Amino acid sequence: MIYITRRERFNAAHRLFRSDYSDEKNAEVFGKCSNPLWHGHNYELFVTVKGEVDPETGFLVNLKTLSLLIETLVISKLDHKNVNLEVDFMKDKLASTENLAIGIWNELVTPLRELGAELYCIKLCETENNFVEYFGN
Amino acid sequence: MIYITRRERFNAAHRLFRSDYSDEKNAEVFGKCSNPLWHGHNYELFVTVKGEVDPETGFLVNLKTLSLLIETLVISKLDHKNVNLEVDFMKDKLASTENLAIGIWNELVTPLRELGAELYCIKLCETENNFVEYFGN
Amino acid sequence: MIYITRRERFNAAHRLFRSDYSDEKNAEVFGKCSNPLWHGHNYELFVTVKGEVDPETGFLVNLKTLSLLIETLVISKLDHKNVNLEVDFMKDKLASTENLAIGIWNELVTPLRELGAELYCIKLCETENNFVEYFGN
Amino acid sequence: MIYITRRERFNAAHRLFRSDYSDEKNAEVFGKCSNPLWHGHNYELFVTVKGEVDPETGFLVNLKTLSLLIETLVISKLDHKNVNLEVDFMKDKLASTENLAIGIWNELVTPLRELGAELYCIKLCETENNFVEYFGN
Amino acid sequence: MIYITRRERFNAAHRLFRSDYSDEKNAEVFGKCSNPLWHGHNYELFVTVKGEVDPETGFLVNLKTLSLLIETLVISKLDHKNVNLEVDFMKDKLASTENLAIGIWNELVTPLRELGAELYCIKLCETENNFVEYFGN
Amino acid sequence: MIYITRRERFNAAHRLFRSDYSDEKNAEVFGKCSNPLWHGHNYELFVTVKGEVDPETGFLVNLKTLSLLIETLVISKLDHKNVNLEVDFMKDKLASTENLAIGIWNELVTPLRELGAELYCIKLCETENNFVEYFGN
After folding, report:
1. How far is the CA of D105 from the CAs of D46, D121, D132, in angstroms?
2. Where would I find the H helices in chain D?
3. Which of F28, F39, F80, F98 is catalytic?
């Protein structure tokens, strides 16, 4: 069993808020992250899969295939987008790093399995000081 | 003559577009950076000042004072904000990294001089692959 | 179950030595790290907590609260301090990275639980080439 | 139980290919990584060992000893070398990051045990976007 | 006048040697870098151009155009290649970082001028500890 | 004319204070950096030299020679030392980053010239947020 990780990046806008909260309540709970005019981040995404090394190729998975799959299913939906308004798998969810990591896991887990790789971890870095890791429930 | 640099960071939303362009023209010239629903970045800002070392303190400038000045005049106006809509010194300007660097220079050059430090360079990094440097005109 | 990590930093002096060793023995066992006139480091601390995402906020834990707790209980005691002489939770302990990581764990585990978050890992980096991880015993 | 990690680096040449594949097949499966005239990388190696803290020294393991062992058994064999042609423990293996990580594990696991440390993880970074982790089988 | 920098990366094999030196002389002058079986690096390239901001676009130069030009004229010739054997603009030159930086300058300076941008600096990093900067002669 | 930079690192203790100031005055001017029990840093040092490429070797200067000279004249005096108490070239000087950079310049400028390389810049990073550059007076 071996683990391989691919890093990808995307730049997106978002805000943290609940529509059933007043502006004051949103500001109190989410602070400056609830700015109604948005802010954004350079997100770093680390996708880790696990499996056996294929003795024919020496690979767990072809990195080009892995990268293309992440690009198609995740990055193209998030890069230079508004997480709250434009990302189908984040519809009606709070755009927190936690929920975004779980959403990305859900997008990737089945297609990766079809590729013969088992998704092990989604690590999502919002700033150099904060990151979230999700290993499935 | 010595040079000292302070790094600060801010997270902001922006878009690149001209209101006198059609949507098609904006997309053609600015690509995905013109997304009308915004995107954003973790900006890294490096402020370099130059001057003589004060023999009394061994400092060119007190870094806490320098940091506080950058925070007050620049970071507080940009962090968790929309560069196009909320930043006074970017009003009616294209929110490119180039213009943002020049805007930050103009905010800091006089107050730094009053502090006894001469602004030498504004370096502004938009992503790990792109940065702009401005040394005054 | 999700994991969230907060990075904090502190700059401190320390030395490695045993008072029951001769100077020669200290130099032999601890090398240049036993310099009696101290040396120091920019330590990087990564605090990882685990738990469930609160459906109300989308958060495992509010990062501002987490950061403030780490600042109050750990960083304020270590930053710009002498680890051997000034840090209550390191009294009578060898100031190794291992012991420092365990000491920080012990400071944080109960207060974090009261905050509703379970401490999962303390990662402490002494240089770019060395780090320690502690997950509790 | 505590975990300590030492980072080391080496620069090496390699290529991915099978001698029982035609050139076309190699290019198809391994892409530009199969260039017959080689390419190379700055590899970053993270060796993590686990164990108990020695109450006498505050160490899990003396880092200088750990570093010297990695240097002798691994780095000296790989640094400024051709992984396919010059590295004894990679003979007749595909020079993938996966196989290289497993090969390094096999070189270190027994000598580390004799040092009183249990090897926990080999993490090998080929580029800033790709890395492999191996924890033993 | 403003300066904008684009980072690109390539992975390549090379060796340092002179065919008019004996193997012993090559080893003496170039050390392990003269290994006849090659070694390699993850090179980081920073291309800095200078010019005026276009008031119409807010750009000094369109970064996508700049990146494409560097990719076409430099990266495609170097990435996953052997610098000594396969790179036209390094033919009959010692494959040192210095010569490689000068070679890249010469490839880019005229095409960039035709793009309306003046090449200011080529910075080429061979490892995390060494880099070369060339500003033209 | 080309520029080559070598990075070296050292870990040291220091404090900022004047013996002709009261403790209160030191705390007021230098803040927590004046802690009488010391603190410390992982300093990063970038030494840049300039000159012509030697057509025989392709080098401006042999990096191994450059690194050894910096190690002998600077790093061995600073690493795991107390800057205020143990460093000959900092005697009777305030241990600020500015003064340390100037002190390192003075140690290196003549020996580098004898090596045939002209010292161009000393860049000294105290933390990830602060650095000083000195180009000679």
Report:
1. 11, 8, 12
2. 23-30, 63-70, 76-78, 83-86, 97-114
3. F80
Q: Verify whether the Cβ–Cβ distance E80 to D11 is below 8 Å.
A: no
pLDDT at B137: 81
Q: Kindly give the parts of chain D with pLDDT less than 50.
A: none
Q: How far is it, in rounded angstroms, from Cα B19 to Cα B33?
A: 14
Chains C and F touch (3+ CB pairs under 8 A): yes
pTM for this model (two decimals): 0.97
Is residue A48 within 8 angstroms of chain C, CB to CB?
A: no
HEC sequence for E97-124: HHHHHHHHHHHHHHHHHHCCCEEEEEEE
Residue A2: alpha-carbon gap to chain centroid = 22
Show residues of chain D in contact with A2, CB under 8 Å.
98, 101-102, 132-134
pLDDT digits (tens, 9 = 90+) for D8-30: 999 999 999 999 999 999 999 99
Place of tokens 């943290």: A16
E125 given a catalytic annotation: no
pLDDT-derived band at A137 (thresholds 50, 70, 90) equals: confident
- Let me know if F71 is exposed, middle or buried by CB neighbors in 10 A (0-12, 13-18, 19+): middle
Instruction: In chain A, count H helices and then E strands.
Output: 5, 5
Per the document, the length of chain E is 137
Q: Give the ipTM of the model, two decimals please.
A: 0.96
Q: Which residue has the tokens 């400028």?
A: F109
Both tokens of residue D24?
């076309």
Q: Which residue, among A92, C121, F64, has the nearest Cα to E31 in the 3D structure?
A: F64
The two three-digit tokens of residue B122, written as one number:
């504004």
- List all residues 6 or more positions away from D84 whose beta carbon is below 8 Å from its beta carbon: D14, D15, D90, D95
